[in-house]
Amino acid sequence: MNLFRFKRDSATPQKPKSKAREWRDAVVFAIAAATLIRWSAVEAYTIPTPSMEHTLLVGDYLFVSRLHYGPITPQTPLQIPLTHQKVLGLKSYSDLIQLPTYRFPGFSSVQRNDVVVFHVPHEQQLPADMRTHLIKRCIAVAGDTLEIRNGQVWLNRQPGPVAGQLQNTYFMEVETPDDAVRQALRSQGVVDYDEPDGIPRASTNPATGKPGFFISCPASVAEYFRQQPYVKALTVPKFQTDLFPDVADFHNSGAASAVPHHWQLDTYGPLPVPKKGQTIALTPANAAIYYKIVAQYEHNTGITWKDGMIQQNGRPLTRYTIKQNYYFMMGDNRHNSEDSRFWGFVPEDHIVGKAVFVWLSIDPNADFLHKIRWDRLFQPIS
């Protein structure tokens, strides 16, 4: 009798799910699936700054493939905002659980001229996968020797291949900076995103005191303006700033090269890009190039900087073997991009993925009827 009752009860159909439970299960599944896809396959990004113009425009929305270079496992599975740290008793992000990272195989490696998304290298207060994402073009890969001569990239003593729609900054001197000139700037696609209407504001050249406009544009647009009768001169301003490796540790310490190079944005290098397995003889002349690699990216202990040399446990380090590949990144807007010229190499374990195409583009300076840049939708990125 008891056996019969057991069998009968076990065959009783389960109570159907309520609508609320069905919705909850569907939402949980959708979130889990979206998280898995975002981590392992593709992720959407937007372009907030003009550092990649004209290849990528402010307001472009991109799909970035993690499959190209291989998805990387999260370093911090539990990501907690800074505002919640005190509540949980965390003094810093170093108190979070941090796991070793592993990159799954991809179907390609980072190539020269790839447009790459990566974790910004100089936010050392955060784990790598919680840092700001940047997007730049890979100019040189591990093992290359990079040089910039008068704005032209050279790789391994040969002119480097040019990809994308590069642009530079010029001062365009004009007799009268009136509305007609502004209209010409607009018609040629010259934009200043700091201005409410997007049109560059009239200024003066600090070197000459002459009136005109600071503009950023491709070489073809610069050539157009050179031929216009109202343009008196079109010159590249002189940019003077301290760059890597003279600044050995961007934003993080006072480490500086003992032998300054005085490189500038358009005259830079030659600089070797470190490659996995390469053994470096460290001297005061080159130690600043490798300081962040030894001290930060490759997780060595007891590393300090003293008297222009890397020290480990209080003794000068004279030889070092590189543990992973590195890359040199630059923005296509060459005079308006904070990139490897400022903060140095991008480690391989900071690489997120390859930008593959623009799926939407919204012009922040256009009126409502012209907000969407229809000609950029679903355009591949090269």
UniProtKB/TrEMBL annotation:
Keywords: Hydrolase, Protease. The active site is at S51, K136. It is found in: Membrane. Its EC number is 3.4.21.89. InterPro entries: LexA/Signal_pep-like_sf, Pept_S26A_signal_pept_1, Pept_S26A_signal_pept_1_CS, Peptidase_S26. Pfam families: Peptidase_S26 (PF10502). One of its GO terms (biological process) is signal peptide processing. It catalyses: Cleavage of hydrophobic, N-terminal signal or leader sequences from secreted and periplasmic proteins. It is a single-pass type II membrane protein. Residues 21-161, 318-359 form the Peptidase S26 domain. GO terms for molecular function: serine-type endopeptidase activity; signal peptidase activity. GO terms for cellular component: membrane. It comes from the Bacteria. It is an enzyme of class 3 (hydrolase). Belongs to the peptidase S26 family. This is Signal peptidase I. The lineage of its organism: Bacteria, Pseudomonadati, Bacteroidota, Cytophagia, Cytophagales. The gene is lepB.
